[in-house]
Amino acid sequence: MAFPTSVPLLILLLTFGLLGRPGSATDFVIYSDPPTALLPGQMFHYDLTPQDIPYGRASLVMKPDCNLVLYFNGSKTWATNTTGLGDNCYLTIDSHGEAIVQRNIHYPVWRSNKTSVVGSYAFLLQWNGELGIYGPAIWSSSNEGELSDPKPSNITTDYVFYSYSVLPIGKILEYKNYRLVLRDDCNLVLLDTNTNTQDIKWQTNTYSPLHDCFITLDPNGELFVKHNRRDILWRSNETTNSNFSALVLRYDAKLVIYGPQLWTTKPLW
Ligand SMILES: *[C@@H]1O[C@H](CO)[C@@H](O)[C@H](O)[C@H]1NC(C)=O
Ligand SMILES: *[C@@H]1O[C@H](CO)[C@@H](O)[C@H](O)[C@H]1NC(C)=O
Ligand SMILES: *[C@@H]1O[C@H](CO)[C@@H](O)[C@H](O)[C@H]1NC(C)=O
Ligand SMILES: *[C@@H]1O[C@H](CO)[C@@H](O)[C@H](O)[C@H]1NC(C)=O
Ligand SMILES: *[C@@H]1O[C@H](CO)[C@@H](O)[C@H](O)[C@H]1NC(C)=O
Ligand SMILES: *[C@@H]1O[C@H](CO)[C@@H](O)[C@H](O)[C@H]1NC(C)=O
Fold it and tell me: What keywords were assigned to this record (predicted)?
């Protein structure tokens, strides 16, 4: 894990509001809004095998030689092939959903070449070791955005939930000091675990005495809290024309649903 090497680049990124989050070794999402970047020499890393989730280790590395390289389960699986095209190259995603590798200062050396309407987008190192761009955002929790614990964490936790997943009572997602939990009484709550009282930042205010609830995300991006096998306790009510979406617990404490999948290194179908 390396840190940004170029002061001019840092100033540039700050000038343009890009939040680099050095030390984000176990992160695996880049956002268009508020913007984040994978900076020169930085790497994303994803490994849930210690938590008995049987996918291989994945990493995405913005190499100092300007090549953006994806590794999965020990092998190189994809690259932008931009070696030697510039110095201080970094990866961002823009408000049209296009991923761009730029060299110092702003010259693009690689683009994903798929654009969509203006909105908020997320670039994910996915659970299966592939890359995916999702958006625009179709739903967001109503709490105020804020900055998470600035301390870097090297513990991988899962903070993305995909369509076709079903999760029972318990921890749903965790990002640093933020945790989304489906409680035993069927209330879906977003907590700040840094506070003694575990402040609730957002909740569905749902209740069921049956202790059998679960959450699902439909392919069209609608999030549900259900119980009694399939009865709906809560729904997000926003949908998009999509067959695959992602719910992300972002670094600013907001839950956001992005869909459809606009670009990927390997289609699911
Ligand atoms: C990862 O590599 C190991 C050892 O080479 C192999 O047994 C395993 O099936 C691979 N996992 C995936 C998801 O490809
Ligand atoms: C990079 O080069 C490899 C090997 O030539 C090729 O298979 C791959 O498609 C290229 N990547 C991109 C993004 O074009
Ligand atoms: C994107 O489009 C440019 C210009 O047409 C082309 O040179 C480049 O190879 C394309 N990139 C990908 C990843 O397809
Ligand atoms: C995380 O970082 C700390 C301090 O650098 C180190 O002691 C610990 O072993 C690391 N844990 C993992 C799982 O890498
Ligand atoms: C979704 O719509 C239902 C029915 O109109 C409404 O009762 C519920 O409050 C809405 N949910 C949200 C999260 O807005
Ligand atoms: C759903 O997946 C199929 C198969 O890849 C694809 O052709 C189609 O465009 C997708 N539909 C939507 C609405 O995204």
Answer: Signal
